[in-house]
Amino acid sequence: MKLFKYRKRICLALVPLLLLANPAITAKAVNDSHLETTTAYDYESQNLETGEKEYYSVPMALGLSDGGYSEGHFPQTGIQNHSIIGEDNRQHITDTSFAPWSCIALLESTFADGSVSYGTAFMYWSDIALTAGHTVYKPSKGYATSITIWPGRLSANNAPYGSAAVKTIHISTQYKNYQSTSEDYAVLELDSNIGDTVGYFGTTWRSDGYTNQTAFISGYPGDKLKQQWIATGTISRSDLYMLYYNIDTMPGDSGAPIIWNASYGHTVIGIHTRGIGTSTANSGVRITESLFNWFQSFRD
Question: Considering the entire predicted model, what is its pTM?
Fold first, then answer.
C-alpha cells in the first residue's frame, strides 16, 4: 500500500534520531517475526495474507491548533433519527439504508486456536475501518488469523451490503506489549472499497473537553443476535486520552464509534472499548490530535 510505504520511510528516518537520543534503544529487523518491538516504534502491522509484520513510527503532533476534523461520506440521503426507549436505553436499528447506520459493521475475528469472537467496527475510508485493538489482538492468542466485517448488518441472516475481509491490521505497540487502555484501537485495511457504497465517518479532535456533551454509540452487542443497537447518553468526564459516559453498552459493542453531533454533522470522537467493570462509567479511547493524524494518514 502506497501510504504504508510512506509511513515506513518516516520510520526509517526517525530511527537514527532515536538511537542518537537514546543509545539503549535498538532497531529491530522488520522481517523477523520472532523479535518483539521496542520503544523505537509506535505501531505494528500484521498482514493476514502473508504473515509479514512491519514496525513503524509517525511524527508527533505539533499542538499548533485547538482542534480539527475530517469529513465523512454519506452516500444515502439524510440521517435517520434515533430515540431513547426501554429501561436499558437501547434502540434496535431496523433500517441500515441510512447513514450512519450503514457505516457501522459487525466484526468477526477467528484466532489460531479456532476460537471466534465478535465486536464492532466502523468505516473510516473506502477501504479502511477502525475498531478496538482487543477485538483483533489478544495477548493469550496473538493476532486474529482472519477477520470479516459486515457493514450495516441487520441480523444473523441479513447482510444487505455483503462483507469485506481484513488484509492488514495496525495496532499500537503500547497496546500489544502492555495492554494500555488508552492505546486500545486498531486500523483495518480491507480487501474492497465497500466504504464507497456504505459510506464512512469523519473524525474530530479538540483541545476542549467533552464533559456533559451528548453522544451516542451504535454497535453489535452480543445479547442481540448480530443486530445493530444504539444507545444515547452523556459524557460524564473526559481526560487527555479517554472518554467516560453513561451510555449503555454490552460485550460486542467494543470497537463501536462514539458519535457526537457537531455543527458540521455526525462525527466520531472516540472508540468504545470498556464496560463498567469496577468503574462507574463505560469508557472509550478519545481521538487526540496524534491519533487523528495517524488515522488521517490512511486516507488516499
Answer: 0.83
